Amino acid sequence: MTVLYADGGDLPADLKRFLTEEDHIFTGAHIENDVKRLRDDFGITISNPTDLQLVVPKAAPRYEYLGGPHPLFGVRRSSLKKVARAVLCLPRLCKPEGADHDNWHSWYLLPSQVKYATTDVYLSYEIAKQLEIKDGYRF
C-alpha cells in the first residue's frame, strides 16, 4: 500500500471510500505502518489489510521457506522481492534501486520513488492474484 499526500493535507473523498470498503482487500509487504499512518493522519481504517510477507509462507507448503522464526523478533519476513520471485516465478526480478528508504515525507516524490512504489503495489496485487489462482488461497 502506498500512502499518498494530497493538497490541504487530506485525501479525496472517493479515495477514502475506496480504502474503507469492507469487501476490498489491501495487500502489501509490512503494511502495518501504512495502515497505522492512514488511521492516525487521515482517520481512515483499512478493513482488510493483508501482509503478504506473513501470508505467503502459510499459503502453500512450497512457500514455507519464506517464513520461519527470527532470532530476535520471532517472525522472519522475506522481502517483497523474494516473495514475488517465488510466487510469480520471476527468478531475475529486479526492483528499482535506491528508493526503498529515501525521503518519503517529502512533498514531491522523485520519479525513482514513484517507480518503486508502483512496482511494490503491482507486485503485491499479482502475488495475491496468483495465490488465489494457483493455490486456491482465500483472503
UniProtKB/TrEMBL annotation:
The record's GO CC annotations read: cytoplasm; nucleus
What are the GO MF terms of this UniProt record? Answer: 3'-5' exonuclease activity; nucleic acid binding
List residues of the 3'-5' exonuclease domain.
14-132
Gene Ontology process terms (BP):
nucleobase-containing compound metabolic process
Gene3D superfamilies in the cross-refs = Ribonuclease H-like superfamily/Ribonuclease H
Cite the InterPro entries for this sequence: 3'-5'_exonuclease_dom, 3-5_Exonuclease_domain, RNaseH-like_sf, RNaseH_sf
A Pfam family per the record:
DNA_pol_A_exo1
Q: Which domain of life is it from?
A: Eukaryota
Q: Which UniProt keywords apply?
A: Hydrolase, Nuclease
* Name of this protein: 3'-5' exonuclease domain-containing protein
